[in-house]
Structure to design on (117 residues):
C-alpha cells in the first residue's frame, strides 16, 4: 500500500507556472512508475506525464515542452513543473503510482489547478 499526498495547486494567470508535489508514504522509485493525471469536470482522467524507475519519461502531446515530471528518490517525492500554463490546463491533477506494465493502482486525493486568461 502506498499513500500519496499532492500539494502545490492553485490559481495562476495564463503564461504562468506552478509546481505540483506528491509525497509518497514509502519508497516507490525502485519498483513503480509514477505519473500525473488530470481530470476535467465530467470527463475521464487523462495521463499527463509518467516517469519510470529508471527515469524514463513520457508526456501527453498537449503538455510536451511545457511540463516536466521528476522525482526525488531520497524524499519519496514526485514533482510536476508546469510552465507556460494555458486556460485549458485547468483541471484537477492527481498523482498516481503502480506497476509500469499494468497502470496506476494508488492515487492521491487531487489538487486543483486553475489558469485564467
Amino acid at each position: 500500500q502506498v499513500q500519496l499526498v499532492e500539494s502545490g495547486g492553485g490559481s495562476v494567470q495564463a503564461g504562468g507556472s506552478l509546481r505540483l508535489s506528491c509525497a509518497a508514504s514509502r519508497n516507490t522509485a525502485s519498483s513503480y512508475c509514477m505519473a500525473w493525471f488530470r481530470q476535467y469536470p465530467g470527463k475521464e482522467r487523462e495521463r499527463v506525464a509518467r516517469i519510470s524507475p529508471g527515469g524514463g519519461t513520457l508526456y501527453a502531446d498537449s503538455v510536451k515542452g511545457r511540463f516536466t515530471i521528476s522525482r526525488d528518490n531520497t524524499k519519496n517525492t514526485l514533482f510536476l513543473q508546469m510552465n507556460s500554463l494555458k486556460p485549458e490546463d485547468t483541471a484537477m491533477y492527481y498523482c498516481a503510482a503502480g506497476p509500469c506494465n499494468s497502470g496506476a493502482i494508488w492515487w492521491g486525493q487531487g489538487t486543483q489547478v486553475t489558469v485564467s486568461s
Notes: The radius of gyration is 13 Å. The chain has a mean pLDDT of 95. The first strand starts at residue 4 and ends at 7. Residues 33 and 52 are 4 Å apart (CA to CA).
